[in-house]
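Q: Could you write out the predicted structure for this multi-component system? I'm mainly interested in how the pieces pack against one another.
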Amino acid sequence: MSNDVSVIPNELRSSGAAKPAVPALECRGVTRVLPSGNVALRVLDGIDLEIAAGEVVAIVGPSGSGKSTLLGLLAGLDRPSEGSVRVLGRPLEALDEDGLALLRRDHLGFVFQTFQLLTNLTARENVLLPLEMHRIPDAGARCDALLARVGLGARGHHYPAQLSGGEQQRVAIARAFAPRPHILLADEPTGNLDPKTGNAVLELLLELRAQEGSTLVIVTHDERIAARADRRVRLEAGRVASEDRA
Amino acid sequence: MSPALFFRTMARQSRGARGRLAFFVACVSVGVAAVVGVAGIVDTVELGIRTRSRELLGGDLSIESRQPLPDLDEHVPAEVRAAPRVSITTLPTMVRTDKGSSRLVELKAIDASRGAFPLAGELITAPRGPVASLLDDRSVLIAPAIAEGEGVGAGDTLHIGGKAFRIAGVIEREPEPLTFSFVFGPRVLMTRAALASTDLIGVGNRVRYKEVLALPPSYAGATLARLQDTLEKSIPGGGSYVRVETHEDAQPALRRTLERVQSYLGMVALLSLLIASVGVAQITSTWIAQAAPQTAILRCLGMRPREVLLLYLGHVLLLALIGSAIGGLAGATLPSLVLAAYPELAPAELIGTVPLAALARGVLLGVGVALVFSVPPLTAVWQVSPARVLRAEVAPLPVPRLVRALSAVVLAAGIVLAALTQTRDLELALSFAGGVTVLAGLLWLLARGLLLAVGRLPRARLPVAIWQGAAALARPSAGTTGSIVALGLGTLVVLGITLIEGVLAREVATAVPKDAPSVFFADVQPDQWPEVERVVVKEGGAHIQSVPVVMARLRAVGGRTVEQLIAERERSEGHRAAGAGGDRARDEERPRQMLTREQRITTLETLSPSNTIVAGELWGKDGVANEISVEEDYARDLGATLGSVLTFDVQGVPLDFVVTSLRKVDWRSFSVNFFLVAEPGGPLEDAPRFMLGAARMPASTEQRMQNELAERFPNVTVLRVQPMIDRATELLSQVALAVRLLGAFAAVTGLVILAGAVASSQLRRAREAALLKALGLTRARVASLFAVEYALAGAVAATLATFGAYALVALFTRNVLELTTLPSWSASAIGWLVIVALSIVAGLLASARALRSPPLAAFRE
C-alpha cells in the first residue's frame, strides 16, 4: 500500500520499533446494569481486563453473556454503571460525549455484524468519510487503495443496497482500517455471512490487522474465529469465566 | 470538521431525500409565497406612487385649503412666481341631463391661465386633443361613468349649478386620479370661469382650493423642502388649515395606509409561514427519528453531536432555500396578477417587474423561520446513542440543558423577529407572537384531549372502519397532532375572517334603523328649505329633519392657538412614537385632523334622542348665551373639558364658546348629529348659515325627488345613504376576500402538513395496507379505512377551528366592535365539512403509493 499515511503515533504501535507503555484497553471492576422491564439486569458484573497494544483478543461466550455490552464499553459507546475503562491510558469517565467522539475518531475502528454502512453514501464515500474527518492528504488515493485491497476496486460507486452482505462487510473493514486506528473492535464480524464468505472476510480482517499493527478485539461465539486470536476471554453471565492464550 | 467536508457530507446525506424534500419544500414555499405576495403587491403599489408622484400631485408642489387661497406671488420667491401654475377648485355637486336624470359628481374647475393643465402626467380624452382646445367656459369634460350611467356623450348638455354646459368629451385617463381617495361621485372637469358662472360657490359647499406649481429643476431635495417650509410659515394657516405638499412627499397619507396594509396583511401571511414551519418542525422530527441509525453510525465514527446537528441543519437550510426560492418566485408573480386585475393601482409598466426587495425579504424570512423551527427537533441528535450500532433498543441519551434552553430561545426570538420584520412595530410583533403561541398551545392541548377521547371510543359499538381509523389516529406515535394544530390554525384564520365579514355585512345591512333617514340634503340655503321640504313631502318623504349649520374654524382651545396645540402634540407624539413604534404615532394623527378640519356647528334648543348628556348640563347656565355642547370623544381629541373656552373663526369673526356639557352620541341611529351644538340665540344667530336636511324616502321615489331638486335647486347636494352602504359593503367584501385568500394559504399549508405527516409514515402504511390486503381486503376497502382516519384528523382540526373561530369572533365583535350580532353557524358548518373533505383527499393522495404497492414488496421493505 504505497499510499499509506500513518496518523498513529509510533509509540502506540505494537508492530514496529516502539512498544507502548500503557495497555491499549483496560477495565477495572466494570459493571453494567440495564433495566429490563421492572427489574435491573446486571449484564456485566465486575469485569477486570487488560489488553495490550497489538494484541488480538477474542471475547467469547454464549448469547446474553455480555460480550457486545463489554465491547460497547471498551469503545466508549456506552458508560459503565460502576468501574473504570481506560483506552490508551485515558479514563473514559473523564470524557464527555464530545471527548468520547474525538477518542473514537482518532483511535478506534469498528466492524459490526450488521455492517453499519451509511446508506446514502457509496462504498467509496463510506471509506472516504473517516479519512476526510482526519484531514488526511491523499485521502482519495488511500481510499481507492483500500477498496482495491478488499477486492472492491471496481465497486466503489455502488451504494450499500447494491452490494452483497460479504461485499458490505468488506467495505466496512476498509472503512475501519482507513484512518489506521490503534484499536479495532469487531462485533460478530462474520455473524451475518455464510461460512465461506465469513472465512474470507475474517482472513481479510486479520491480514489487514497484521499489516497495520492495530490492536484487535473480536466479539464472537464462533470458536473457530476465537482460535485465531492471541488470547480468548470467556464471559459467562456477565463475568470473566476463563482466559487462555494461544 | 472542515467546511469543505461539511458541505460534502451534507450533499451526500441529502441523497434519497426526495419524499422529504417535496413536503418540506411545499410547506415553506406556500408560506413564503404568501409573504412575498403581500410585500410585493404593497412594494409595487408604493413604487407606482413614487414613480407617479408628480402625476398624482398634479405637479411639483401643491397648496391646498378649504378656504380660498391668498395670492401666492406674495409668498413665493421671485423665480417661482414665473413658474407654470394651475389653480384648481373641487367640490361635490349635482348634475342634471336634458332628459332630467341627475347624479352626484366630483367637480374639478381649473384655471390654466398661468400654465397648461395638466402640469404633470397626461389627460387623455375622447375625442383626443389638448384641454385648452376642448374646454371653454361653456363646456365640460365628463368621466366615463357619467357618460355610461346617464347615456350622454360629446355634444350633449349637462346642467350644473343652474347653467347648461356642452359636453366636450369623455375623460379616459386623468392625472391625479380618484382611485385612492374617497369621493362622492365621478369626475366632471370645467374651467374655473365656468364654475364662477354658476351659483355653486356659496356658504356651505365642501369646496377645496388648490394651487399646483411646476417648479424649475433646481427645486429638488433640500431646496424643494425649504420652499415647502417657507410657504408653510408664510401662508396664514400653513401647516394647519393650509396643506403644502411636494411630489417628493409622494402621497404620505396614502403610503401610511399602505404601511398598515403591509403590517396587517403581512401578519396574516406570516401566519401561513409559521404554520408551514410547524410542518417543517414535524417533518424534521420524523426525519431525525428515521435517521437515528445513520446518526448513530456518524457518532460511532467520531462525529460530535454538534457536528451532526450542523450537518442536518445544513440539510434543512438547503431545503428551506429551495422552498423559499420556489415560493418567492410564485409570490413574486402575485403583484402582476393583482395589477392586471386592478390596473389603477400602479402604472402598467410595473406589470411583470419582479419585486426584488420583497422577494429577498420573503426568502430570508422563509429560510430563517424554517431554520429556527427545525432547531428544537434537531436537538434530538443528542439523544441518539452511538451504542445503537450494537443494539437498536438502547436508551436515548439526555439532551444537555443548555442545548434545550438555547433551542427554545432561538425559536422564540425567531418568531418575534419574523413578526417584527412584517409589522415593523415591536409591540404589535410581541402581541402577534404571543397570540399565535398561546393559540397554537391551546389548539395543541385541545387536539391532544380530543385524540385521547377518540382513542377511548367504545370500539365494540362502532363499525370496524370507524374504530380502525380512530385507533390509528389515537396511536401514541401517529405524529398527527402537529398537523392537526397547523390545519386547525389555518382553518381558524379563514373561518374567522369569513365570520367577521358575515357579521359586518349583516350589521351594515341591518344597522340602519327603519325610520333612519335615507337621504341627506346639504348646502340648502335657509330660504330654499320650505320648498325643498315640500318636494320631499310630495314624493312621500317622512321623518323630515332640518338644522341650521354654520361653518367655522377652530382658532384656540383655552386660549392656546391651534398652531400651538399642534406643535405641543407633535413634540409629545415624537417621544411616544420613538418609544412605541410607528403605528401608535399614526393613531395620534386624528386629534391633529380634528383641530384643523372645517367645523360644522349647529344650534339646537333640544337634542335628539340619540344624544345623552354625560357631563355638565345642556344650556343650564343662566346668563351665558355662548354655551356649547361637545361630543365626548371629540372633546378629548380637542383637549377640551367642561368649562374650556373654544374660540372659533366664523367668516373671519372670532367667537368664544364655553363648553358646558359633554354628550355621548349614538351614531348608529343615522340621525342628523353634530360634534358641536351651540345654544340658540347666541352669537351664531347672525352668522351665514345653510340648512342640513334629512328624510326617509320611499326607494321608488328617491331618484325622481333628486331629479326635481337638481332641476329646481342646483346648489343643493343630495346624498343618498343606500349607494354609500352598497359601496362600503363592496369595499368590506374586497378587503375580506384579500384576507381570506391569504388565510387560505395558511389552510392549504395545514393540508400539506397533514399530507406530509401521512407520507412520512409511508412505510408503516404500506405494511398496514399489505397486511390488510393479505387478510383479504380490497384496495378500495383499505383506502376507505385510511379515509376514515384522515376524516377523523380533519374533523378534530375542523372542530377545534370552528369552535375557536366562533368564540374568538364572538368576543371580537362584542368587545372590540361593540356589536351584538353573533357569527353565523351555517358558515362554520360549511367550513367544517370542507376541511374534513379536503383532509380525506390530501391524506389519500399522500398514501397513494402505500395503497398501490403489492403486499409482498411492502413486507420485504
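A: Regarding packing and overall arrangement: The first strand of chain B starts at residue 61 and ends at 65.
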